[in-house]
Inverse folding.
């Protein structure tokens, strides 16, 4: 609820477990289901209303790296270290599977959920969700092989991350040396930004003005899409894997060390020559960072298990804080910001309610 | 396993390099199929052909990334960061990781990956770089491709493989050439890459506290002797006969090689002979009698024929090392009947000008204390200016005012250092440094290092 500052509820949180290290989480659009992937392989879907596990699946051999949910949780898409993308139906059994050129790094759904894009090796494979077989299949039936509708190929090195432009069918892909924008239906890239460096994550600002990347050499890059210029921020402690835009697109939160930092990107020059907001509380590296979907709440979690909830635009002091007994690897607000899922390296997922 | 590897909980990683045909695949297949009880992951290059169907054999793309940190040689392997980052999150922890590189890859970026990426450095330690060499073809490969030299330069262990397909003389020549390039590496001669795994795994090649084991003879520009011969002598009286020659003096040493086969009687004694030749001359030598003992004799020669007696108490092989070639002085050993005894084996130690390798080792040892500001400044400038050409370096230093050793090691421009073991009162404080690199200037390095003395 805009204007009201929420805190973590004092009530005991609900917890779920998955075998291994929580490598990715995804909320269903209505916030009823939460899909969780493990670096050990398994994938599971939990019902956040009754606290029960709806299904689990062995996942992807040497590990599952990415998960996303469509159709309010009736379809879950995962990829990982077995060179496959799996489309899990409502019971978890894969309805269909696509073959990838190598390990699946990331899977992302377009905003309208029409396309699922998967980054693997030097390509992005785009699957048309309308062409998938019916989701309702009997458990145990072999999954049906599916082919991508489009392949965005020819990146100079492995694609490390992808992001759909909000509301469109344009997609940004990062690889060493390039940030490439593709459009479904167009042959060849729409736009290529070049620089001699390795970006690891990419996020499109909700207002579509910027692409932000977190980089191997401890920098964050802002790409002004219309102007075609870029701005590089130095001085992070480590490589930057944690990036999150607030819902307005005005603020970007970055990790890359112990201090979450919030950049004001409003105005013509964006964050250039503006002092960012630096949030001091963590004593170890922040491994997970996420803005709320409707509010400007920011959650951060570190390797020592410290979870901090901030309202960074209003104050540099924490709103709430918890100490968990696992290293935090994921934080994700439910679509309405009423819940916060916190995943850990021991396979625990703790679900906090937020209350005014 | 030394102390540091025993306490370091990080998963060890060995880098396996070597040209095509050197036996890497054979070795990897053996490691994977051997019953060692370890959970080993193999990251093979894109052309790798490990024959065993194994979940933990992972293909990598060898993507070398430059780091934008102002250090021109800071390159890392992006594919390894991704793959290892994922593997290390798994609960079924790995006991060991082997990374195979193609013959054309420079091992530098692989090693630097373990220092440049925090996440990787926190969980994994590079244990060593093992380079396989095809003994039959390595000479040509070294002459034709700089990558081959770099793989030799980076190595902690060199497997001189396929020695069964080369003559003993060729094997020795190759070994000498490799030694001159990398005096730090341990060399094992193998056929079919067969050797106990503990010789290549968990060797602590990058441990700061590991000994600075360098074979001193290979850090010398030349051997102090030109010839060695092995004589099979029965107990009895002999004479060393020598005439005048192009030089007024000749240094020599005669060593009992009892228990060694003829072939080893030279190899095994080269190192002690180098030491003996660096000692003072045996003061009591009066020019009349020689004894088989670790003594350096200096013969003062006129144009006359000189005869020195040798009493052999026990039959067996004896090795004679001479400063100059015997034919220049008409030198021979004669038996009681004045008949020349022919050596059962001989070897010349002429300076090796056959291969003019750009990659060499330079080792410097200096007694005394260094001044910390001076050594710090010298190393900083040296690394900045010559870091590209310095592949590996290691040093154990005595710094004025510090009662512990100061140890460091480096790869290109990256350096890792810490205090080492304390100096004991009985120990003479001294400094040892080894550089392995391309186009190294021994004089320049030695002069620079000497200027750091307190």
């Amino acid at each position: 609820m805009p204007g009201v500052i929420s805190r973590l509820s004092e009530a005991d949180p609900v917890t779920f477990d998955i075998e291994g290290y929580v490598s990715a989480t995804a909320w269903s659009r209505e916030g009823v289901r939460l899909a969780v992937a493990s670096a050990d392989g398994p994938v599971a879907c939990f019902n956040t209303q009754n606290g029960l596990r709806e299904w689990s699946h062995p996942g992807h051999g040497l590990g599952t790296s990415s998960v996303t949910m469509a159709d309010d949780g009736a379809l879950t898409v995962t990829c990982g270290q077995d060179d496959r993308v799996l489309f899990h139906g409502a019971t978890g059994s894969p309805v269909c599977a696509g073959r990838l050129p190598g390990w699946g790094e990331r899977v992302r759904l377009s905003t309208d959920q029409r396309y699922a894009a998967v980054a693997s090796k030097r390509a992005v494979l785009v699957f048309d969700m309308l062409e998938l077989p019916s989701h309702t299949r009997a458990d145990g039936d072999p999954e049906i092989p599916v082919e991508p509708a489009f392949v965005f190929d020819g990146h100079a090195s492995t694609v490390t991350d992808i992001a759909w432009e909000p509301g469109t069918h344009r997609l940004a892909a990062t690889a060493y040396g390039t940030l490439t924008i593709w459009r479904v239906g167009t042959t060849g890239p729409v736009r290529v930004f070049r620089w001699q460096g390795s970006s690891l994550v990419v996020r499109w600002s909700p207002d579509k003005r910027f692409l932000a990347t977190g980089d191997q050499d401890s920098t964050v890059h802002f790409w002004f899409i219309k102007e075609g210029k870029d701005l590089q921020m130095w001085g992070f402690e480590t490589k930057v894997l944690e990036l999150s835009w607030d819902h307005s697109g005005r603020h970007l939160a970055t990790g890359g060390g112990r201090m979450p930092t919030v950049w004001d990107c409003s105005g013509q020059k964006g964050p250039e020559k503006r002092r960012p907001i630096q949030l001091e509380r963590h004593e170890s590296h922040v491994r997970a960072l996420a803005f709320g979907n409707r509010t400007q709440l920011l959650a951060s979690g570190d390797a020592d298990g410290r979870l901090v909830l901030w309202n960074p635009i209003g104050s540099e002091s924490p709103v709430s804080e918890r100490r968990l007994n696992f290293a935090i690897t994921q934080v994700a607000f439910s679509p309405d910001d009423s819940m916060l899922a916190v995943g850990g390296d021991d396979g625990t997922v703790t679900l906090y309610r937020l209350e005014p | 396993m030394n102390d540091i590897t025993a306490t370091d909980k990080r998963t060890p990683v060995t880098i396996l390099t070597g040209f095509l045909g050197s036996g890497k695949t054979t070795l990897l297949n053996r490691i994977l199929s051997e019953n060692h009880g370890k959970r080993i992951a193999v990251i093979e290059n894109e052309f790798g052909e490990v024959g065993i169907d194994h979940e933990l054999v992972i293909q990598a793309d060898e993507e070398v990334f430059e780091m934008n940190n102002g250090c021109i040689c800071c390159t890392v392997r992006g594919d390894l960061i991704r793959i290892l980052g994922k593997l290390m999150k798994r609960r079924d922890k790995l006991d060991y990781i082997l990374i195979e590189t193609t013959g054309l890859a420079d091992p530098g970026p692989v090693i630097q990956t373990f220092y440049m990426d925090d996440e990787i450095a926190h969980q994994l330690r590079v244990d060593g770089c093992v380079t396989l060499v095809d003994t039959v073809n390595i000479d040509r490969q070294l002459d034709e491709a700089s990558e081959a030299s770099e793989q030799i330069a980076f190595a902690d262990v060199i497997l001189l493989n396929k020695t069964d397909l080369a003559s003993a003389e060729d094997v020795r020549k190759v070994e000498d050439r490799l030694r001159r390039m990398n005096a730090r590496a341990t060399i094992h001669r193998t056929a079919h890459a067969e050797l106990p795994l503990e010789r290549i795994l968990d060797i602590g090649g990058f441990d700061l506290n590991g000994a600075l084991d360098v074979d001193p003879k290979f850090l010398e520009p030349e051997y102090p002797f030109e010839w060695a011969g092995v004589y099979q002598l029965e107990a009895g009286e002999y004479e060393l006969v020598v005439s005048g020659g192009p030089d007024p003096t000749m240094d020599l040493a005669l060593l009992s090689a009892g228990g060694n086969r003829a072939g080893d009687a030279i190899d095994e004694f080269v190192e002690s002979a180098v030491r003996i030749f660096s000692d003072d001359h045996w003061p009591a030598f009066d020019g009349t009698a020689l004894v088989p003992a670790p003594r350096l004799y200096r013969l003062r020669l006129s144009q006359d024929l000189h005869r020195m007696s040798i009493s052999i108490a026990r039959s067996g092989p004896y090795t004679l090392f001479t400063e100059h070639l015997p034919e220049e002085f008409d030198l021979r050993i004669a038996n009681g009947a004045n008949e020349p005894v022919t050596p059962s084996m001989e070897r010349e130690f002429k300076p090796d000008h056959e291969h003019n390798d750009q990659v060499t080792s330079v080792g410097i040892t200096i007694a005394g204390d260094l001044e910390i500001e001076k050594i710090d400044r010298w190393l900083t400038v040296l690394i900045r200016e010559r870091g590209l050409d310095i592949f590996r370096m290691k040093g154990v230093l005595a710094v004025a005012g510090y009662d512990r050793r100061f140890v460091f090691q480096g790869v290109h421009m990256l350096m890792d250092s810490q205090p080492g073991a304390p100096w004991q009162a009985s120990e003479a404080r001294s400094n040892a440094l080894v550089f392995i690199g391309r186009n190294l200037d021994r004089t320049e390095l030695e002069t620079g290092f000497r200027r750091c003395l307190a």
Observations:
- The mean pLDDT of chain A is 94.
- Chain A touches chain B at residues 19-21, 23, 39-40, 61-63, 65, 81, 102-103, 105, 121, 157-158, 160, 176, 196-198, 216-219, 238-239, 285, 345 (CB under 8 Å).
- Chain A is about 0% helix and 50% strand.
